[in-house]
Amino acid sequence: MEIIIVQVLGVFTFLIGSVWLGTWIRRAPDKDTAEKASRISHLLFWSCLVLPGSIGLLYPGLTRYDSILGVPSLPLQSPAFAGGLVLLLVGIGFLVRSNHALIRLGRGIAAFLLTRQVVSEQVYHWGRNPMSLGYYLACIGMGLMAGSTTVTLGALFLIIPVHMFNLRYFEERELELRYGQPYLEYKRRVPFLLPKLGRG
């Protein structure tokens, strides 16, 4: 139960941090502040969402969340597992391809070594946040594979909305400050999250 409490507190800490960082860069709208705030946001993401979630994989284990909380597990375990596996693999694909594009084209990585330019090619040609999409699909996929109502609903109604708030309220403004007009043009041209398939 302790790790579940830590995970919930982590999500709310990330939310509060996103509000604070978004407010900070609106009060001090310059590139230097945006870069500092971006590093803090990444630290919050890894320490408040990824680390507690990773610990939960091992203890208590994703299959035990429902029994700890007295919640019924998902019905149709085999189809849920198969669907979850597909989502997990697609999510990992988005994560790998988006990181590769950031390293190769943006000359940085997704966390503390910030990219130096807007990346608008490869997987970033279809959507502005393919790494986040991959993260969301992986979270839902793991919940389905575990047959866990708690993990699946927690991903859908807690982790994903809070992370999307961070993207909308903080990260988009931070990228506008760091990259200026090139990012604004990219933002006008490319959808936020879900890719438009068949784009030229």
UniProtKB/TrEMBL annotation:
The domain of life for this entry's organism is Bacteria
Q: Which Pfam families match?
A: PEMT (PF04191)
Which residue positions does the secretion signal occupy? Answer: none
Tell me the InterPro entries matching this sequence.
Phopholipid_MeTrfase
* Record-annotated membrane-spanning stretches: 6-23, 43-62, 74-96, 133-160
State the compartments where it is located.
Answer: Endomembrane system
Topology versus the membrane: Multi-pass membrane protein
Keywords for the protein's UniProt record, in alphabetical order:
Membrane, Transmembrane, Transmembrane helix
Has the keyword Transmembrane helix been applied to this entry? yes
Cellular component, GO annotation: endomembrane system
Q: Does the keyword Nuclease apply?
A: no
Q: What name does this protein carry?
A: Isoprenylcysteine carboxylmethyltransferase family protein
Instruction: Please report the organism this UniProt entry assigns to the protein.
Output: Desulfomonile tiedjei (strain ATCC 49306 / DSM 6799 / DCB-1)
